[in-house]
Amino acid sequence: MDATTDKDALVQEQIYNALCSLGESEPEEILHCCDEYLRQHDKLAYPHRVIILKAMESVVRSNISLLDKSTAKELIQEWQQAASSVLVAVGQRFINKVMEEVLTKFQPGILPHCFVLQTFADLAVANGQ
């Protein structure tokens, strides 16, 4: 998975395809490996993190009926945190666009998801002067 940091788009695509292919035969193993890799590389640049997250999404979509309930629960929280981190990283340069997108998650009369609030807090910290 370290090759996801390669600047060549073809290499990145090959890594994505390999993860998806391996996920067809061993979905839970690949999901756990990707999850562990993302945990160990929490400073991984967001474009590279996205490659792994997209591969994980593809594996889940293709094998949803085979996944154990505990695997799904763990992954949901990890994905939400990873997605929040990606938004915060992008928000360090494009704060207005990220804020526009996150604000769409606020609906009158409905409490926002906890990760929406977490993303706002992290954006504030990352962009504080």
From TrEMBL:
Name the chain's protein: MROH1 protein
Which residue numbers delimit the MROH2B-like N-terminal HEAT-repeats domain? Answer: 19-127
Checking PANTHER family in the record gives: MAESTRO HEAT-LIKE REPEAT-CONTAINING PROTEIN FAMILY MEMBER 1, MAESTRO-RELATED HEAT DOMAIN-CONTAINING
Record Pfam families: HEAT_MROH2B_1st (PF23221)
Name the InterPro entries for this protein. Answer: Maestro_heat-like_prot, MROH2B-like_N_HEAT
| GO CC terms of this entry | cytoplasm
Q: Which gene encodes it?
A: Mroh1_0
Per the record, the domain of life is Eukaryota
